[in-house]
Amino acid sequence: MSDRLNQLAANLEKVLGKRVQSIEIALGEVTVVVNADTYFESAILLRDDPSLAFEQLIDLCGVDYQDFREGAWGGQRFGVVSHLLSIEHNWRLRVRVFAPDDSYPLVASITPVWNSANWFEREAFDLYGILFDGHDDLRRILTDYGFIGHPFRKDFPISGNVEMRYDPELRRVVYQPVTIEAREITPRIVREEQYGGAV
Length: 199
Hints:
Layout: H1 2-16, E1 20-26, E2 29-34, H2 39-48, E3 56-64, E4 78-86, E5 91-98, E6 106-108, H3 117-128, E7 131-133, E8 162-167, E9 172-177
Parallel strand pairs: 2-5, 6-7
Antiparallel strand pairs: 1-2, 3-4, 4-5, 8-9
């Protein structure tokens, strides 16, 4: 097994060259981190080079690294992680890329390379606010059109910013500021003698 992973890592280093920031083999998996400015080009090479032949994109998701490793993380805040599958070589790969600007997270869209990335990139945009340059239909997919913010960001308030409810007088759904009040939760203490058969 480790020979196959070492072969994959060697092929990645040979094909991608300076586009690679790091290659890691851990827990029976290979992870490659590529530069954001060569992300799209790297995706094409990963798919088209016969020594790699990653025909399928299995998954793509956004990640917010704020407070990662208890605040010891020194890298960029937002990343995009993709999982690829090569049917021809029967191996898998994790590809990671970091958005260079935390205030405006932007990476290239890989939808032209693997069309299955379409909804995955929309989900990462909706939940993390990561923008995908070249995506032709980047809009919310899970939250409502009027939703404010990106709920999977670490700095998003737990109770949210707005709530919606049905107003019977207006006969429609309305949005309003969150009305959840903080409450104190006191654990219930049972003080009955012989509770539960205890003597």
